[in-house]
């Protein structure tokens, strides 16, 4: 309201001139005895000047017996008898003999919202880029090309109008397919990209310029974590700085194997494990995603075999696997083919050095596993992905089938029956993010694996 009164000379500004945003709004006002103020605010609210962040009852200097009550802007010229009788508060004023006057309300740069100002200065007010992702003290924008000439102005407006924002950056290119970070430029504020974010009762510290973080995914993080039960075992293949792993450990007391190939993400993951005091529950890794899937499944089995005398549970499997790399995660499903096949279970070359064992120690360790797997609940896999298809469910399930080389009709039927595709969010026009959840099939996990395409994450 009243933003249309901002001077047209603001249009096309490249730097902020705050004086141009001053607007004086004339309103009708009533001089009302103090004892009636409460009644007016209760009974005539609809008639008052109710502009956000503006007072409609004002002190009168040197008159403690009365106050100035501001009325709706539309009542300014309502002085004829017919109008007085139609407007309740004006009739009340006439009946009580209250005097009326005019009052000037000054709205300046500090009053207007970022959206008001952006619409006033940019060439196309209908598409002003006022939205951004906030990552700690950082406002992350993704400006379209037509707004790049105004990027400094936009950054300064966002900085001015967002009390918790200290740094405004703009994304320069697409996300790097290997390490999931992207180049950015500073638009306004401090050149400080070390962010601290609170999410899901946890604290995450990281360098936003070197790792992947998306605050808009908090609901998805919570949704997946809420499928975990207390004490379950979680395999987080593309863990980033820990938005799934650390809350799972801290809030659900889950045992988590967490991996990310990006050295900066791994470093932050390790820091955040310590920061949130979940070191006894989260094991961090910094290796290739496919290698991590194969080795972590094997190593959890070996760990459970070693502890079986104390737990009476010889074989331990992961309960959930999380794969949050939507650009390529579906392709990594091939790592589950033969994950419980002898060729993987007895392969000592595919283990992180901290988890390696001699081949002779593992070869006979898995006696009885095949029989156990026939009745065991294999892991529930949650894999994030993008789809542009008009039929995303079929598209995503078919891509998953292809990745796991599923061609047998019974396996196709089983996957289609137990798979669930959940919409996560819209990423771009005609491009949405989804999560495919399905239980790993025994026939896939025990099949002799085919040579894979080593794509790292």
TrEMBL record:
Subcellular location: Mitochondrion matrix; Nucleus; Cytoplasm
Transmembrane found in the keyword field: no
Residue stretches making up the SAM-dependent methyltransferase TRM5/TYW2-type domain: 132-442
Superkingdom in the source lineage: Eukaryota
Broad enzyme group: transferase
Residues binding S-adenosyl-L-methionine: 221, 260-261, 288-289, 324
Reactions catalysed: guanosine(37) in tRNA + S-adenosyl-L-methionine = N(1)-methylguanosine(37) in tRNA + S-adenosyl-L-homocysteine + H(+)
Main location, first listed in the record: mitochondrion
One annotated GO biological process: mitochondrial tRNA methylation
Keywords: Cytoplasm, Methyltransferase, Mitochondrion, Nucleus, S-adenosyl-L-methionine, Transferase, tRNA processing
GO cellular component, as recorded: mitochondrial matrix; nucleus
UniProt KW Zinc-finger keyword: no
An example Gene Ontology molecular-function term: tRNA (guanine(37)-N1)-methyltransferase activity
Pfam family, one: TRM5-TYW2_MTfase
EC number annotated for this UniProt entry: 2.1.1.228
Subunit structure: Monomer.
Role summary: Specifically methylates the N1 position of guanosine-37 in various cytoplasmic and mitochondrial tRNAs. Methylation is not dependent on the nature of the nucleoside 5' of the target nucleoside. This is the first step in the biosynthesis of wybutosine (yW), a modified base adjacent to the anticodon of tRNAs and required for accurate decoding.
Family listed: Belongs to the class I-like SAM-binding methyltransferase superfamily. TRM5/TYW2 family.
Protein name: tRNA (guanine(37)-N1)-methyltransferase
């Amino acid at each position: 309201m009243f933003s249309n009164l901002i001077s047209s000379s603001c249009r096309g500004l490249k730097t902020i001139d705050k004086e141009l945003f001053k607007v004086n709004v004339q309103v009708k006002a009533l001089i009302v005895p103090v004892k009636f103020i409460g009644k007016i605010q209760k009974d005539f609210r609809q008639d008052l000047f109710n502009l956000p962040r503006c007072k409609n009852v004002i002190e009168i200097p040197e008159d403690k017996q009365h106050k100035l009550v501001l009325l709706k802007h539309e009542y300014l010229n309502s002085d004829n008898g017919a109008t007085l009788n139609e407007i309740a508060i004006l009739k009340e004023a006439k009946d009580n003999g209250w005097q009326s006057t005019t009052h000037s309300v000054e709205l300046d740069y500090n009053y207007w919202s970022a959206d008001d100002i952006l619409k006033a200065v940019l060439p196309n007010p209908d598409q002003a880029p006022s939205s951004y992702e906030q990552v700690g003290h950082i406002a992350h924008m993704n400006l379209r090309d037509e707004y790049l000439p105004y990027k400094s102005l936009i950054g300064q407006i966002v900085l001015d109008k967002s009390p918790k924002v200290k740094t405004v950056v703009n994304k320069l290119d697409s996300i790097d397919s290997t390490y999931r970070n992207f180049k950015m430029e500073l638009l306004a504020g401090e050149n400080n990209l070390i962010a601290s974010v609170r999410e899901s009762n946890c604290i995450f510290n990281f360098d936003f310029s070197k790792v992947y973080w998306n605050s808009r995914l908090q609901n998805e993080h919570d949704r997946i974590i809420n499928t975990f039960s207390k004490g379950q075992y979680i395999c987080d293949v593309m863990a980033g700085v820990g938005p799934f792993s650390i809350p799972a450990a801290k809030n659900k007391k889950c045992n988590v194997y967490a991996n990310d190939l990006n050295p900066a993400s791994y470093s932050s993951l390790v820091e955040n494990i310590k920061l949130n005091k979940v070191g006894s529950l989260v094991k961090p890794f910094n290796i290739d995603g496919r290698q991590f899937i194969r080795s972590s499944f094997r190593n959890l089995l070996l760990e459970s075999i070693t502890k079986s005398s104390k737990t009476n549970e010889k074989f331990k499997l992961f309960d959930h696997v999380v794969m949050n790399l939507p650009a390529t995660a579906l392709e990594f499903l091939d790592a589950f083919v033969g994950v419980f096949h002898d060729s993987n279970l007895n392969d000592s070359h595919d283990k992180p050095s901290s988890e390696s064992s001699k081949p002779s120690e593992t070869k006979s360790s898995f006696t009885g596993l095949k029989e156990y797997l026939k009745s065991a609940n294999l892991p529930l896999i949650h894999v994030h992905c993008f789809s542009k298809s008009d039929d995303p469910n079929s598209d995503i399930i078919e891509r998953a089938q292809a990745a796991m080389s599923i061609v047998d009709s019974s396996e196709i039927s089983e996957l289609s029956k137990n798979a669930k595709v959940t919409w996560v969010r819209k990423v771009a026009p005609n491009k949405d993010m989804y999560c495919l959840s399905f239980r790993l099939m025994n026939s896939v996990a025990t099949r002799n694996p085919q040579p894979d395409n080593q794509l790292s994450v």
